[in-house]
């Protein structure tokens, strides 16, 4: 959980709720790549998750957000294990099921 927090994939609220025993959900979706080929083989999918878990990625500046209770962050991640492997852009989202949306008064 500390790595997810350090990478900005979860925030203080998520960390507190998870520490208190609630479940947290993190989803990862690929959305663009050089040549627009975002299809991934099984081994590339596993390498992608491994590279995210090992913080082997580059955060894309200025594209993070929080929508209601869902935190999003975009990264460029290698889908291989060596330098020069194909890189794709991914977006992560995290939330705590059952958390109510925060609505600000207008």
Provide a brief overview of the structure.
By secondary structure, this protein is an alpha+beta fold. The protein is built from three helices and five strands. It has helices at residues 2-6, 12-19, 42-53; strands spanning 25-33, 57-59, 65-67, 70-78, 87-95.
Task: Give an account of the 3D structure.
With 106 residues, the chain is α+β, with helices and mostly antiparallel strands. The chain has one domain. The chain is built from three helices and five strands. Strands 1, 2, 3, 4 and 5 form a five-stranded antiparallel beta sheet that branches. The longest helix is centred in the middle third of the chain and has 12 residues, at 42-53. The protein is elongated and about 40 Å long. The mean pLDDT is 84.
